[in-house]
Amino acid sequence: MGNGLSEQPSLLSSIPFFQSFHIAILGLDSAGKTTVLYRLQFNEFVNTVPTKGFNAEKVKLSLGGHRTGTFHFWDVGGQEKLRPLWKSYTRCTDGIIFVVDSVDAERMEEAKTELHKIAKTSENQGVPLLVVANKQDLRHSLGLAEIEKLLALKELGPATPWHLQPACAIIGDGLRDGLERLHDMILKRRKALRQQKKKR
Ligand code: G3D
Ligand code: MG
């Protein structure tokens, strides 16, 4: 018996939870951004060509539990001449996926500079960041601790929530886990923003 109220939490938690998210996929050229995008969309390896402008894909994904989200991914070319465009694609974004080539030790400093630049623009203050340490399948890939240090992730400051995820985009390893972490960070931020608004 009972008034049914006690059943509410379980009823609510069984209703699929639809939300929509805008995500910009950034990183130096050849880091694996387009491979990440198509692996998430089609769950298969797609032979990529260097991205001249951008690729945009809408993907409906179910994450852990009953959560389902529609993700609008913007994969923006990473060549130097295209990087000024990143700013436009990260305006009003819910999250940023920054892909690095874990083998490319030489360009880690350049990746760090670009990553910090984008995280520090005023529009991106507090936007959750998923750093994908890609190409972990390759023999000479750097380990997570080293990548964290080289990218100076701890210097991003408390305003930017981040997660560093090892991955191999050609087979898809690590991408789902990374996206779940990004999704969690985005939901947390939305909740905090809602609470801030209420207080005002
Ligand atoms: P970009 O969009 O960041 O410029 P791409 O990068 O997605 O076009 O990928 C650049 C190259 O890296 C591609 O190889 C792609 O197959 C490869 N690549 C992407 N992810 C991985 C990975 O996890 N492991 C390995 N070993 N290679 C990966 P090509 O040969 O086409 O240039
Ligand atoms: Mg590309």
What is the structure about, briefly put?
The chain has 200 residues and is an alpha/beta fold. The chain contains six helices and six strands; from the N terminus they run H-E-H-E-E-H-E-H-E-H-E-H.
DSSP strand tally: 6
Shape: globular
Alpha carbon gyration radius: 18 Å
| CATH fold topology | Rossmann fold
- List all distinct small molecules, including ions and cofactors, that are bound in this structure: guanosine-3'-monophosphate-5'-diphosphate, magnesium ion
Number of helices: 6
Largest sheet: 6 strands, mixed
Unreliable residue stretches: 1-9
CATH superfamily: P-loop containing nucleotide triphosphate hydrolases
Distance between the termini: 42 Å
Domain module tally: 1
**Secondary-structure-derived class:** alpha/beta
Named CATH architecture: 3-Layer(aba) Sandwich
On the 0-100 scale, what is the average pLDDT?
Answer: 86
Side by side, the strands of the main sheet go 2-3-1-4-5-6
Oligomer: single chain
| CATH class identity | Alpha Beta
Q: Helix-strand pattern, N to C? A: HEHEEHEHEHEH
Helical proportion, percent range: 25-40%
Question: What proportion strand?
Answer: 15-25%
Binding site for GTP: 27-34, 78, 134-137
Main location: membrane
Subunit structure: Interacts with CYTH2. Interacts with KPNA2; the interaction is direct. Does not interact with ARL4A.
Pfam families: Arf
